[in-house]
UniProtKB/TrEMBL annotation:
Upper classification of the organism: Eukaryota, Sar, Alveolata, Apicomplexa, Conoidasida
Keywords assigned by UniProt, alphabetized: Golgi apparatus, Membrane, Repeat
The protein's name in its UniProt record: GRASP55/65 PDZ-like domain protein
Subcellular location as annotated: Golgi apparatus membrane
InterPro entries named among the record's database cross-references: GRASP55_65 (IPR007583), GRASP_PDZ (IPR024958), PDZ_sf (IPR036034)
Amino acid sequence: MSHVSGCDGEASLEPSGYRVVNLSTAANVHGLHVLVDYIVEVNGQPVDGSLPLGVLLAGTKGPTAEVMIYNLIENSVRSVGIIRNPMGQFSLGATVRYEYIQEAVENAVKVISVKKDYPGDEAGLVAGDDYLIALGSGETLNGTAPLYKAVQALDPSKLEGVSVYAFSVRESTVRRVELIPRMEPNNRYVLGIELEETSLPLEEIKGQSSTVQPWQLLQSKREIGTQTEELSSQLFQYVMSTNC
């Protein structure tokens, strides 16, 4: 998490961490969840983005590095132990990017309608339930422009598609879907979906509250002892300071 200025000029904490943007191993032995898991502590120390995650893990003295992971959708924290491999290295098995958690909340594209038998329908997108949150590369969809840009960059001579991550409110899950655009007679790609730039509807997610932000709820979690209590207190203090 990163230090920012509070209302009175004093330092406060803005919730942030290393966001899991892609899994680099099929096994995923650490049970990571793409785009909704954030590594917020390494060996009991909050992260601030000043060093790559690999460097922080390499600084572990013992055989196991302990990382604390915050899950945005489940609104929970958990501790995961990463064991040194035979070469003496710590492998997370994922690609991560340091981000503020609020960015994920504020940037989403809601699927408003899906035209039958068009690419969006064939990919299984559900109108009113699915929110597109990132491209397959892990790039956050801060609006519809990145998606349309990726579509226009496709080679018309090849049967190519654009991978996106979709979050289902009903299922509270993130899945990867492949959109293969259809070429219309006017040489224009179409997906057959109507989109709306919005934010993630956390108030509609099971277990979430419409009046309390997810990091505020962390202050009530006591799942993994003292470390969780200290982290929750820091996050709660930040939220309170921004409301002054």
